[in-house]
Design a protein that fits this description.
The structure is a homodimer of 214-residue chains. Chain A contains seven helices and eleven strands. Chain A is α/β, with parallel strands linked by helices and 214 residues long. Chain A has one domain (2-182): 3-Layer(aba) Sandwich (Rossmann fold). In chain A, strand 6, helix 2 and strand 7 (95-99) form a beta-alpha-beta unit. In chain A, helix 1 runs parallel beside helix 5 and helix 5 (153-166) packs antiparallel against helix 6 (168-177). The mean pLDDT of chain A is 96.
Chain lengths: 214, 214
Amino acid sequence: MQIAIVLYDRFTALDAVGPYQVLSNVPGAEVVFAAERAGRVSDEERCLHLSAEAALADVPRPDIVVVPGGPGQHDQMDDGALHDWLRAADRGTAWTTSVCTGSLILGAAGLLTGRRATSHWLALGELGRHGAVPVAERVVFDGKYVTAAGVSSGIDMALTLAARIAGDETAQAIQLGIEYDPQPPYDAGSPDRAPAEIANAMRARSRFHAAGSA
Amino acid sequence: MQIAIVLYDRFTALDAVGPYQVLSNVPGAEVVFAAERAGRVSDEERCLHLSAEAALADVPRPDIVVVPGGPGQHDQMDDGALHDWLRAADRGTAWTTSVCTGSLILGAAGLLTGRRATSHWLALGELGRHGAVPVAERVVFDGKYVTAAGVSSGIDMALTLAARIAGDETAQAIQLGIEYDPQPPYDAGSPDRAPAEIANAMRARSRFHAAGSA
């Protein structure tokens, strides 16, 4: 079972590494980090550098695709090599997935048209402009298309997917292995429950704000 | 505020990247991934490769040290360059921290003697053999020494630390930014609440089992 995690300049590291840490533990999983060109790919802070061991062209038939989000998503919205690869790979995948604004890339490639999907809370409106039906849930399944909300939600998405692939016991063992018994210090991880002034300040600063999406 | 995240062969990726995603958003943070030698460092699966931009020797005075865990921890327990660096760096840090079995390395370097500390649930007993007072909590503060339980707990640790450094509002904004509103599919992330047969099977397979630590 080949799992291709797509990297591009200025991706968000946890979007990719959260699902990686879970899915790499599914029996039979072979994960490959792939980018348009193989080599070092820098995250949004240009501080963390992950190695893409393969070019997308070298991974034509993955069983699972994971597309992370991040500020660099903005530069991946035009038709081109990544979209071509996503559409071709999607014809053979068992699961096509995204985390955070990765769903905007899937949408721009035409893969979410008419499908229920989610994204980072600031990007949900924008997701609707790319043909998807935006849903404010943490993990959204629509057939084989699985989208997760912002950044850390990729862990929940991957555990849910691990259960679909390998069963409840395997997913529970993975969860216990990574000791995923979250105890956030605040109930501030959702715009509905975070202090309103903090959420509003983030909306005002958001690159999606001008589009009225959040 | 310089934050040194220590890498070594066969570290666990999420141990490093969870805290990174949080702490890199603290105002004034400058994160550097550092290893005994600069260059590419491979994770436990030898599938994910992160770039250590600096050698430890090039980062003599970090304000914060983060030591991840992972299967490779076992090879970092002897006195040597990493322990020397940890002891020297610790003399100047504001915070010395670890995730998962990273606390065993801090302990072996002599930095947790008599201190309350935690580790991956399978390694708590082993932690006691390195001079610490093991505590089965998710995040443990003892003065400037901050240790987190297994893998995913580094996110909770880093958010708690972000609040100490920069205040509640900043930490809440970071939590909302990474949409950390966890919804695990099972209540299986703790050995007390996971199915007993799953926890027992993991104990039996654990590399700490022979030492009777879990």
